[in-house]
Specification:
The structure is a single chain. The protein has helices at about 15-25, 60-65, 85-95, 105-115, 130-140, 145-160, 175-190, and strands at about 5-10, 30-35, 35-40, 55, 70-75, 80-85, 100, 120-125, 165-170. It has a five-stranded parallel beta sheet with strand order 2-7-1-8-9, with helices on both faces. A four-stranded mixed beta sheet has the order 4-3-6-5. It has one domain (about 5-190): P-loop containing nucleotide triphosphate hydrolases (Rossmann fold), CATH 3.40.50.300. By secondary structure, the protein is of the alpha/beta class. Helix 5 (about 130-140) runs antiparallel to helix 6. It is globular.
Length: about 200
């Protein structure tokens, strides 16, 4: 745990955080590895077990909670749990890398609270809620009902943005990617001035 750092990217669904995290993982000089979260939901589209998520049953998830295996976890929607296994973070640190998370806002803030000195928490803000809705519809992975649930949740999530260390506005992807890489580089080389709580 001595040298390992935690980099959290959180945002409402459709803001572009996954695209940003994938880009950062390709930047070899950053020495990042992706923390694969657990979820009790079914895979969507071409999602793969162990790559996008560890897809486990609701019963298994609740057993992990009981055992205290999670760094953080949350019931995002009814019977729809997401969480980060402590063993996943330890695996990455043992490999000598820093951990990067693509995680919902509640989970992101929990990690920041647990490891304030080791964590960079970045909120990715979409241009607008209307733009968010357009992006979610373009994905064609969910029903209109699910999209509306995500939009309702997004308004609540957007209100948490000031609790993060930094906010990246994803109006133009290229600019957001450059900003994210710069932030992470500066954080990893201890050049970034973090706000004192």
């Amino acid at each position: 745990m001595k040298d390992g750092k935690l980099i959290v990217f959180s945002a409402p669904s459709g803001s572009g955080k996954t695209t940003i995290v994938r880009y950062l993982l390709q930047q070899k000089e950053l020495d990042l590895d992706f923390s694969v979260s657990c979820t009790s939901r079914e895979p969507r589209g071409d999602e793969k077990h162990g790559e996008n998520y560890y897809f486990i049953s609701l019963k298994e998830f609740k057993q992990h909670i009981k055992n205290g295996d999670f760094l953080e976890w949350e019931e995002v929607y009814r019977d729809n749990f997401y969480g980060t296994l402590k063993s996943e973070v330890e695996r990455i640190w043992k490999a000598g890398k820093h951990v990067i998370f693509d995680i919902d806002v509640v989970g992101g803030l929990r990690i920041k609270k647990k490891y304030p000195e080791h964590t960079l928490a970045v909120f990715v803000k979409p241009p607008s809620v209307d733009e968010l809705k357009i992006r979610l519809k373009k994905r064609r992975t969910e029903s209109d009902e699910r999209i509306n649930m995500r939009i309702a949740k997004a308004s609540v999530e957007l209100a948490t943005a000031p609790q993060f260390d930094f906010i990246i506005e994803n109006n133009t992807l290229e600019v957001a990617l450059k900003e994210a890489k710069d932030l992470v580089s500066r954080f990893l080389s201890d050049e970034l001035q973090m706000e004192e709580e």
